[in-house]
TrEMBL record:
<protein>
    <submittedName>
        <fullName>Uncharacterized protein</fullName>
    </submittedName>
</protein>
<dbReference type="InterPro" id="IPR058059">
    <property type="entry name" value="PA3496-like"/>
</dbReference>
<feature type="region of interest" description="Disordered">
    <location>
        <begin position="1"/>
        <end position="26"/>
    </location>
</feature>
Length: 59
């Protein structure tokens, strides 16, 4: 099956099924907080690597 055939086989009901799979209420809030924390940690790691790689600290 080609890409074009598989793309045309999706139906509008697939979008509503996707909405049912999403977390709601407290779980959605928890997921949002976890994602935010992960993003913060990744940014902290990125900045630390930039500082560690810099030669500005040589005295």
């Amino acid at each position: 099956m080609s890409y074009r055939e598989s793309k045309s086989s999706t139906t509008p009901t697939d979008a509503s099924d996707y909405e049912k799979d999403l977390a709601s209420g407290e779980q959605a809030i928890k997921n949002s907080k976890v994602r935010k924390r992960i993003d913060e940690l990744l940014e902290k790691k990125r900045l630390k690597e930039l500082l560690d790689d810099s030669d500005d600290w040589d005295v």
